[in-house]
Write a structure and sequence with these properties.
With 158 residues, this protein is an alpha+beta fold. It contains 3 helices and 6 strands; from the N terminus they run H-H-E-E-H-E-E-E-E. It has a single domain, classed as Roll (Thiol Ester Dehydrase, Chain A). The longest helix has 19 residues.
Length: 158
């Protein structure tokens, strides 16, 4: 019988160790390589909550010298998807179905994205699970909001 650690178990094993949050962030970017483009740093992860930081660096800036809109979209999808991964039952699977975003102001500092469910989920039937992500600057001012629709359904028996 094949057993593997869940994303949450890996986080719980690494997060309290020196360099563990860094290692988890790198591991997740190996699993989903595109997210490596923003060099995220996970700060907290638990069911119904995920916090991801991204530093302001040249590779994520636009022509104005502020955080690029798509870098913030990547942050939102990473935080929302990882939160969903550790929240839905292991008997279910999920996939992003759509994302609505609002750019609230120029993002000229490092950023933090926080993902939470929009409402309590009912896993008894397949359906849409809404995730809210808010990104704030270092002055705690919101610069971006997203609502991600995740399609969640039971895994098919093998």
């Amino acid at each position: 019988m094949k057993t593997s650690l869940s994303t949450l178990q890996i986080w719980e094993n690494l997060a309290s160790k020196p360099g563990g949050k860094w290692a988890f962030s790198k591991f997740l970017c190996l699993k989903a390589p595109y997210f490596g483009s923003i060099s995220p740093s996970f700060k907290e992860l638990k069911p119904s909550y995920c916090e991801v930081h991204v530093a302001k660096r040249r590779s994520v800036l636009n022509h104005l010298g502020t955080m690029h809109a798509i870098a913030m979209c990547n942050m939102a999808e990473l935080a929302g998807g990882t939160m969903t991964e550790v929240t839905v039952p292991s008997t279910h699977r999920w996939i992003p179905q759509g994302m609505t975003v609002e750019y609230l102001k120029k993002a000229s500092t490092d950023l933090v994205a926080v993902a939470r469910p929009s409402e309590k989920a009912d896993w008894s039937e397949p359906g849409v699970y809404l995730v809210d992500v808010e990104i704030k600057d270092t002055k705690d001012a919101p610069v971006f909001r997203a609502r991600i629709s995740m399609w969640v359904s039971p895994k098919k028996a093998s």
